[in-house]
Fold:
Amino acid sequence: MHTLLDVLASGVHDAKNQLFIAESQIASAEARLGIELGEARYAIEAAASRLSRTLAAYHVLRKGATPAVTPVIVGDLCDEVVLDQKRHLASEGIVLTAACSVIDEWPLDRDLVTDMLNNAIQNAGRHAGGHVHLDARLDDGWLVLSVEDDGPGFATLPPPYGTGLMVAERLAGLHVRRGRQGSLQLRNGAGLGGARFELRLP
Structure:
């Protein structure tokens, strides 16, 4: 099984590299022909970035590595996620808002947490009525990062765990500090009334 997983990971790596090449070719065509293919480039960039972070998660989960936990400015992380997602959601008629009341740095694996939030926002956008919100706050010594939408919410709680939620839960749990372990919480009926995806990191 491990050999099969390593082969699949190698294939993901190669596919990721080909996507980056395709994105470069599209950007060149845009400049040469004077056409706008922003959504196509977004889709390719998002897929390539997702594959890159999937590989990072694979190495952490499969090979026993530890997350690359470093002090991260939470506001900058949230700004990066919003920048990645806002334009695409707007093209789908979805408004993405964000609020970050965290001033200080926080120890976390930036790449893995960024990927989890990007994935959560993309999922929320598929079910939202018209609004997705990203929030970062402190709660009794925890960093709470949440994504919520104004859609119908999860049909069942807990929802069936796909690969994304399963990986997010395991990666959150790898963030350990002073005996406390990170966690993923899912619920309905939060501020916007729909589904809420919440990471709690120590």
